[in-house]
Structure formats: C-alpha cells, structure tokens
Design goal:
Number of helices: 13
Distance between the termini: 12 Å
Shape: flat
Number of strands: 0
Length: 317
Amino acid sequence: MKIQREDIHIISRHSNLTEQAIERVLKENVYNDKEMWKKFLRLFFITLGIGFTTAGIIFFFAYNWADLNKFAKLRLTEMLIIVTTVVVLLPKIKSSTRNIILTGSSFLVGVLFAVFGQIYQTGANAYDFFLAWTLFITLWVVVSNFAPLWLLYIVLINTTFILYTEQVVKDWPPILIITLLFLFNTAILLIFIFLEMDKKIENVPKWFTYILALGSVTFATAGVSFGLLDEDQSIFPVLALIVILMYGLGIWYGIKSKSGFYLSVIPLSIIIMISASILKKSEGAEMLLPVSLFIIVSVTLVIMKLVNLQKKWKNEK
C-alpha cells in the first residue's frame, strides 16, 4: 500500500529514525516531484485551453449570430466536432489528453443541437434537445470511461427527465418525480461503488462519487421534506422506506471505508428531514426556536462524533 504522511508521522514518534531519514521518506513517498508537477501542469493547461476554446466558440456564435447565415452556423459547428474527433483518434496522443478533448467535443455536440434549435425554432429548452445531446455522446462516454464526461452525461439525463416531466407528463405529482430522480442517482452511485470494490473499474475519483452521493442525498432530502408537508401521502411511505435502507447502507459504507463525507452528509440530511417534520406540527413562529435549538444541538453532536471517529481511525493506522 502507498505510504501516507500520517503513517510516517506515527512511525517517527515510535522509532529512532533521524530527521534526515524522515525527510528522505517524505520526499520519496509523499511529496510531489518534478515529474508529477509537470503532469499536473500539462493536464491543467490542456483542460483550461479546451475550456476557454469551447467558451470562445459559444460566445462567437452569440456575438455574430445575426451576421451568419444558417448554413455557416451549422457548417462551422460540425467542422469543429469533426476536427476534435479526428484529433482524439491520433495514436500519439495520451489517454488523459484524449479524454479531455473528447469532453470538449461532447460540449460542442450540445452547441450543435442548440444552433440547430435556434435556426429551426425547435426550442433550446425542450427535453428532446437534451435527449438528443445525451444519445449522441453515449458512445464517447462508454468508450472513454472518463469521470468528468460521465458527470456531464448524468447531468444531461437528469435534465432531460426533469424537462420531460414539465413539458409532457405534467400530471405527475412532484414527489413521484423526486422519488424517481433519487432512485436513478442512487443506482448510478451504487453501480460505481460496487464496480470499484470488485476491482472491475479502477481510478474512480473520490470527488466523482462524492458528487453523485451529494445529488442522491439532495433528492432524498427534498423528497422526504416535501412528502412530510404534502397532503398526498400515497408515494411517501415507499420513498421513506427506500431512504432509510439507503441511508443505513451509506452509514455502513462510510464506517467501513473510513469516509467522513458519508458520515457527515447523511446525518445533515436527517437533521433537515426531522426539522421539516417538526415544522409540520405547527406553522406558527413558536416552532422556530425549538427547531433552531434542535439543529444546533444535533449538528454539534455529529461534529463531536466525527472528530472522535477521525482520532480512532488515525490511531488504528
């Protein structure tokens, strides 16, 4: 296993290692060397350059929209997508650079459909616009297996579904929509976690699973809070049962993986839900003080528990 900074500090307190030896171990195992900084700066400037280029293309169309004919608009966007895709296929390009360029190409696909929608007045905020964008980058997402591109893909699916419920199936109750969004995002999160645990997928960034977990918890919190305050209770028991099961699984996984993120986000969500249930009992101002006291006490207890767990985990290393 890779030696961490905390491991070296623990060893130094219980051994006779000299300061020079500790410094040498830190340089070899912890500190970033020249090559690591070169790799970071290369990826950083490539990402920054592609991001600025994509933003420049979008602003170019926005500023010169009236002076361009519809064929020029479509031709320019299509040529940019073709060029970036051809660059991705070059064999000498590193995989990280290829994935970053492919992510920029995926954004350009959205620009292409937005231009098409503006020319033919199909609607840039219609659900089928985001549906087409999602479908046409599916192959790139699967092949690249790049976390930022996966995140874009998941956001597009959520956006497509939300717009579909607003524009097509307008009679669906809000709690049903939130429940389906919670189930979808939780399923995606569990798939990535289980694939990583089974070693079927490697190098899943922590920030990626954290964002997925945050989205899932957000939908769960909104759904339960809305269900507590809503008069229609037909779907709420199902949502509450699923949330209890998933939160129990999340706390178990947080303890097993020694991750303070899950052990802080889930209790915060529970505190918000309980506060909503307290407010449901009375709509008067007299309930604000008990709710405020409950939030202060509960958050303090959660922080104290997390601090104790962090100390325990450090001593176990």
